[in-house]
Specification:
Blueprint: E1 4-11, H1 19-29, E2 33-40, H2 51-60, E3 65-68, E4 82-83, H3 85-90, E5 95-99, E6 102-106, H4 108-120, E7 128-132, H5 136-147, E8 152-156, H6 160-173, E9 178-181, H7 185-191, E10 196-199, E11 223-226, H8 235-243, E12 247-248, H9 251-266, H10 272-281
Parallel strand pairs: 1-2, 1-3, 4-6, 7-8, 7-10, 8-9, 10-11, 11-12
Antiparallel strand pairs: 3-5, 5-6
Bound molecules: nicotinamide-adenine-dinucleotide.
Nicotinamide-adenine-dinucleotide binds near residues 109, 132, 135, 162 and 205.
Length: about 280
C-alpha cells in the first residue's frame, strides 16, 4: 500500500542496530504508517528457521522489502530473482525489494560509502588509497572507492586470499582503477605512500579496541576514513584528527545505506539530514 512501509532487518546480533529506527522515523516523518521489524535469526523463536523460510515469510506477509546484514549478505543471493548492477558488482546484497512478485537484490552499502565519501571528503586526493579489510563490508567499500575515482587501490587483509580476490574483482569491475593486494603496510608507505586510508576491518569496535594500521604512519597529509561506528569516534579517527588529518567517520555509510534503502522500499526520496539526526540521537 502506498501510505505504508512494512520492512525488516534479517541478521544475527542486531539488537543495537540503528537501521530500524532510521527507517521508522523517516517513514513517520513522511506520513506513512510504518512497521520495521528486527528479525534476529538468533532469537529463540527463529532458531529453527532458515534464511529461505524467513525471506518467504516476509514476502508472504506483504513486506515491501528487507535489509540483510551479517552473516547473510551473500547467502541471500540464490533466493532472489534479480540483482541490481551494484549488487552484482559487489557480489553481496543488503537490501531486498519485493515488487511485482519478484525479489530484487540491491547493495546500498556501496552507494552509502560512496555518498559519505563524496560529501565528507570532497576534493580529497584520490590518487592512491589503502583499504584495510576485504571482508563483507570491505568489498562494498572497495568498489565504491573505485567508483569515486580512486586511481590506485591497495588492499590489505590479514587473510591475503581475501585481499587478492577483492583486488581482482575491483579491477574487473573498474578497469580504470589499478588495484593490488599488499602484505606489508609499512613497506607500502615507504615505497608508494597512499593519500588516504579506509578501515573496513572490525578493529576499533568497542569490543575490539585498537587499529589495523601502525599509528606512526598517520601524518597530517593523509585522509582517514573508518566504517566502524560503534564507537562513533574510533581510536583511528581520534588519532587521525589529533594529527590534523581530514577524517570520515563510519556513521556516514550507515546513514546513507539506509537513505537509499528507504528510497528503494518506498519509491520516495528520503531526507538524509533527518535520517542522520535520528542516527545521532540513538
Ligand atoms: P568481516 O568479518 O566480513 O570482514 C572483516 C575483514 O577484516 C576480514 O576479511 C578479516 O580478515 C579482516 N581483518 C580483521 N582484522 C584485520 C586487521 N587487523 N588487519 C587487516 N585485516 C583484518 O566483517 P565486515 O562485515 O566486513 O565488517 C567489518 C566492520 O565494518 C565491522 O566492524 C562493522 O561494524 C563495520 N561495518 C560498518 C558499516 C557501516 O555502515 N558503517 C557497514 C558494515 C560493516
Amino acid at each position: 500500500q502506498e501510505d505504508c512501509l512494512l520492512a525488516g532487518l534479517i541478521g544475527q546480533g542486531i539488537a543495537l542496530s540503528r537501521t530500524p529506527l532510521m527507517q521508522m522515523e523517516e517513514a513517520r516523518a513522511q506520513g506513512l504508517f510504518a512497521s520495521y521489524k528486527k528479525l534476529d535469526m538468533e532469537a529463540p523463536e527463529r532458531r529453527d528457521m532458515t534464511l529461505a523460510q524467513m525471506v518467504s515469510a516476509a514476502e508472504a506477509a506483504g513486506f515491501d522489502g528487507l535489509n540483510i546484514t551479517y552473516p547473510y549478505k551473500i547467502d541471500v543471493i540464490p533466493l532472489l530473482d534479480e540483482l541490481s548492477e551494484n549488487a552484482r558488482a559487489v557480489g553481496a546484497v543488503n537490501t531486498v525489494v519485493f515488487r511485482g512478485g519478484k525479489r530484487i537484490g540491491h547493495n546500498t552499502d556501496m552507494w552509502g560509502f560512496g555518498e559519505s565519501f563524496r560529501r565528507g571528503l570532497e576534493g580529497a586526493d584520490t590518487g592512491h588509497a589503502l583499504l584495510l579489510g576485504a571482508g563483507g563490508a570491505g568489498v562494498a567499500v572497495a568498489n565504491a572507492l573505485a567508483e569515486c575515482g580512486v586511481q590506485k587501490l591497495s588492499i590489505f587483509d590479514t587473510d591475503p586470499a581475501r585481499a587478492e580476490a577483492l583486488a581482482a574483482q575491483v579491477a574487473a569491475n573498474f578497469p580504470a582503477t589499478r588495484t593490488q593486494a599488499v602484505s606489508d603496510i609499512t613497506a607500502l608507505f615507504a615505497e608508494d605512500r597512499p593519500n588516504g586510508v579506509v578501515n573496513a576491518t572490525p578493529m576499533g569496535m568497542a569490543k575490539l579496541p585498537g587499529m589495523a594500521i601502525d599509528a606512526a604512519l598517520i601524518d597530517a597529509d593523509l585522509w582517514v576514513a573508518d566504517i566502524v561506528y560503534f564507537p562513533l569516534e574510533t581510536q583511528l579517527i581520534a588519532r587521525a584528527r589529533a594529527k590534523g588529518c581530514r577524517v570520515l567517520p563510519g556513521s556516514g555509510m550507515a546513514v546513507f545505506q539506509a537513505v537509499r534503502a528507504f528510497e528503494l522500499f518506498t519509491g520516495r526520496p528520503a531526507d538524509a539530514v533527518r535520517m542522520k539526526a535520528t542516527f545521532d540521537a540513538f
